[in-house]
Amino acid sequence: MRSTVYVEDKPVPEKVLYINEPDLADVSINYYGSGNQEEESQAGHIRVYVPLDLSADAILRRLRFLICRYEEANEGNEFDFSMDVGRLVSQIEIYDQVWFAREGRTRANSADSESEKHSSKAVELVRRFVAELEEIPDGCAELFPFELIDELRREYL
Length: 157
Hints:
mainly alpha, 6 helices
């Protein structure tokens, strides 16, 4: 089955954030490494930038999809589940940086409290994200999602 590919040759609009982080779109990098320097120098190498919407609802929707896909955190899927959710945490970090800048604060001027080092939008998103993580059925996983929940609470809440 062949899919239709839409190629746009217009420049990236100013409202779009350009992030050169291929592992957000290419899951295989986490398993096999990227080899970017070798690939980029090859004549046949083509890098495509795929749009990714980063909103609280979109990130939570992706988390719910993963929870539905894996159903529970157990020894057999703990690593993969954790890696997939880790990609969402990277998206939260980008979302936070953008909203932090939009809210007009600078990290250098922020207070010592962790929540003051993050945007109010990201803090609320993480609160909802953690609530979803806490609902993952425990199938005897050892680390995930427990350590991630603790880490997110320390950092954002």
